Amino acid sequence: MKRVFCVFLVFMLVLSIFSFSLTPKNMILRADESYQWMSANTGLRTNEIYSFAIDPTNTQVIYTGTYSIGVFKSTNGGTSWSDANTGITDLDIWTLAIDPTNTSTVYVTTWGGGVFKSTNGGTSWSAASTGLTDVRDLYVACIAIDPTNTSTLYAATNGGVFKSTNGGTSWSAVSAGLTSLLVQSLAIDPTNTSTLYATTNGGGVFKSTNGGTSWSAVNTGLADLNIGVLVIDPTSTSTLYAATTGQGRGGGVFKSTNGGTSWSAINAGLQGHFDYIQLAVDPTNTGIVYAGTWGGGIFKLTSGGTSWSGINAGLRGSFDVSALAVDPANTGIIYAGIWGGGIFKYVPQSSIPKYTITSSAGSGGHISPSGTVTVEDNYSETFTLMPDSGYRISEVKVDGVSKGSISLYTFLNITSNHVIEARFEREIAQTVIILQIGKSNFTVNGVSNTLDSPPVVKNSRTLLPIRAIIESLGGTVSWDATERKVTVSLGSTSIELWIGKSAAEVNGVDTAIDSTNSKVVPEIVNSRTMLPLRFVTENLGCDVQWDGTTKTITITHQAP
User: Fold this and answer.
1) Do 272 and 172 share a domain, yes or no?
2) Strands, DSSP E only, in 399-460?
3) 443-479 tens-digit pLDDT
4) Looking at residue 259, which CATH number applies to its domain?
5) pLDDT value of residue 291
6) Are residue 443 and residue 456 in the same domain, yes or no?
7) 297-301 β-sheet, strand order
8) Which of 272, 292, 340, 473 is most buried (most C-beta within 10 Å)?
9) pTM of the model
């Protein structure tokens, strides 16, 4: 148990690092109350999402980094995804960054493989980690690209901050002044790219005003020094927002209006969801901030206030937000990675495709939900088939194709209309009775019972006191002493037999007990009425089998 707990802590720390490392441009988030979330997982082979990057020149092109499966790319705004991993040797993709001046150039950072670079839009990748020699296991949390000179890159690692001035061909450490080398994210001031901020685990926030040559701590007012993410208000770059990786220590979101010189907490409304928070600032409306939380979904802060409200309509799953990105061409469109739930897209409600599933059930049972169900694009819906008492499921058809006698069916990632039909039939209850000549004990479905007198063979036919057998089948036996008549009834069948007579009546029809042997008749032996077993049970719809070696009789009856 201790080992599992430690692994969990490491995992959560990793998640807090990678999920907050998108550049400010890719973290812009705009919300509207007429919008809601819809699933966008078609083509993904995992539901564990680490990060996003959106091509600023063609926002239909999106990349997502995943846990252990690698990079996926969409060319249609998240409608579908395909693998884009050729050349990547470590498939734990933490973050991605796109060169804003040449969007065919993309960088990814990994858990243990360092940095990879593509110059053809993700078709192929090559390692770009030369110089990252001080990084343990080449653990790189994120890359920040200088928007005014895209050959200049900064990498946040577990060995400090590294800088490249040649597009990732080589790197050198720029960590002077950092008291914690476990750097979790980076942010570049878009109006003065020599000013950078680095968040760390254990050291809080650091600021550089000389392109990373030196750093100084800016932590006054921060209650928690494990800072997962920092974003800059692009309309007022002295306004910063930082979020902690809390782990229950009372952290949350903090705001600075003086370039990090001092901070104050703004946590009202977050409902205790202070751990592993992601942040984004609306670039078109200063003072609007969004927070993606672990367990609470996504929250919105308006007008630079101090109270948050949830914007989770349509969001499903764990509400553990592991990645956020916004369409820079339409800031109302947002992408969210929900850990274990895949990708969700925030879109106008009116634009979400809707489909119908029509369910029906025959007599003897019902289906839930019933009738016509309306579902949104890419969502799933489960139907439960429930037979009534005495019935069972005979067949379920989905879009006309038989699925057998299943009791549960789930439509996954729905993208069209469907029909589900259920049919039921009466249960067939089987009773098996086993007797042996000369023995009073017999079994009914394996349970021992006792006859008044053991079965005997006379005139090559088995005679026995039949009441216990008939009652085991659910029937009745009555005796008319005046007529010396036995009446056996089971279901809709009634058999009348008379002592000493070789004919009986089955539902009022005269019937020979044994057409080949008139000596086979009901008898009274030792004060017990003995009836011919085969004649009675076969006329009641039973199957009778005789084993001459063991002198055993097996009677099988299927209830209607």
Assistant:
1) yes
2) 401-402, 408-411, 418-426, 430-436, 441-444, 447-450, 456-458
3) 998 899 999 899 999 888 888 899 999 998 889 999 9
4) 2.130.10.10
5) 86
6) yes
7) 278-281, 289-293, 297-301, 308-310
8) 292
9) 0.66
3-class SS at 533? Answer: helix
Distance CA 367, CA 412 (A): 18
H/E element, 358 = strand 354-361
Domain match, 54 and 100 both: yes
Distance CA(206)–CA(216), nearest Å, equals 5
pLDDT at 246: 61
Would you call 282 helix, strand, or coil by DSSP? Answer: coil
Tally Cβ neighbours within 10 Å of residue 90: 19
Range of the domain at 369: 354-426
Phi, psi (rounded to 5 degrees) for 488: -110, 130
Q: 247 pLDDT band (50/70/90 cuts)?
A: low
Which two tokens mark 14?
Answer: 């990793």
- pLDDT category at 429 given cuts 50, 70, 90 is confident
Tell me whether residue 1 is in a domain.
no
Residue type, 475: G
Which has the closest alpha carbon to 224: 257, 201, 207?
201
Alpha carbons 214 and 193: distance in angstroms, whole number: 14
Q: What is the mean pLDDT of the chain?
A: 87
In contact, 455 and 438? CB cutoff 8 Å: yes
State the pLDDT at residue 242.
Answer: 93
Query: Which neighbouring-strand residues pair with 158?
Result: 160
What is the reported pLDDT for 487? 96
* pLDDT at residue 13, rounded to an integer: 28
Q: Which residues, in sequence order, are CB contacts of 543 under 8 Å at separation 6+? A: 555, 556, 557
